[in-house]
Amino acid sequence: MKYILILLASVFYFNCFTQCTTPTGLFTTNITSYNALANWSSVAGADHYKIRYREYNSSSWNNLGNILSNDSTRNIPLLQQNTCYEWEIMSFCDSTNLLGSNWSIKDTFTTTAFIPATFDPSINYDLSDLECNKACELIINTSQLNDEPDIATLKIHSDYGRFEMANLLIGDSVGYSVLNLNTQTINATLRYGGEISVGVYQINAFNSFGLVIGTFNIENKASGVSVLSISPNDGNNYTSGYTSRIHITNLFINPPNAGPLNFYAEINSELNHQTQDSSSVLIWCTTNIKNHNVSIFNPLSYDILGRHNKKTMFYKNSRGGTVKKILVE
Fold first, then answer.
1. What is the distance, to the nearest Å, from the Cα of residue 282 to the centroid of all Cα atoms in its chain?
2. pTM, rounded to two decimals
3. In order of start, what are the domains of the chain with their CATH numbers?
4. What is the per-residue pLDDT across 17-35, written as a single tens digit (0 to 9) for each?
């Protein structure tokens, strides 16, 4: 009997003093066709929370764990459009997931219909130097709005210029890239990957962990250069919006003559949309100023009194012409 009383006392102590309070105040905001924001009232003394969600009356749950104690919202991702969902939450008073509360009362919400944006990616170019024959940094800027179809292939070509590849070794750094997403910024180092076919060179993008996260090819054409990027399909065919800057450092050589340098882009989406774009920059050359008065001669001349006249001078320019100058004192 004594042992039974001790056991009951232990159970009573555990339930009364160690079980966390069940979260309350559940509601859902920022509902779109593919995600929603879960909200709840914070629980005093909670170490962390756990959410589970599912399609309404489905038999299986999806879990969102490791939600910190100071959080009272969490995004519910990877949802289907026009679908009803339910979710609930529990709190834990220690880091072991042992001292947990009961599951809360469920909250429900319905996702909206997905309306895709028009496939209209933006692309433009910058050169660090616009002087003819100069090696410069070629910067390629691309961006897409939220819910546009993903880009599958991007091909850029110019009508003049070239890439200087002669002295590169595999692994050499040739620039960097910056990709800004809604939730993070990804920086990468661009490294030369070798000549994969005649005149076609591979550029690899490495993240901070040394892993390849993307590749593209550059090529010297009979007139101008080409850049080809093929993006792997991520399975959903639509983007959540981004801006991208690719800096190809000191490989691009400007054309030898002044005038417009044109860039053309052909862009295809994963859903077979096609669009084209063009823009130009103006290349200039240093003016080579020549002194056309390359020789000066002063034939002897005399005034009417027979005195030597030094006021008349003749200049022969580089084109073979003679220019007469009269000096006025």
1. 25
2. 0.67
3. 2-110 (2.60.40.10), 122-283 (2.60.40), 295-326 (no CATH)
4. 458 999 999 999 999 998 9
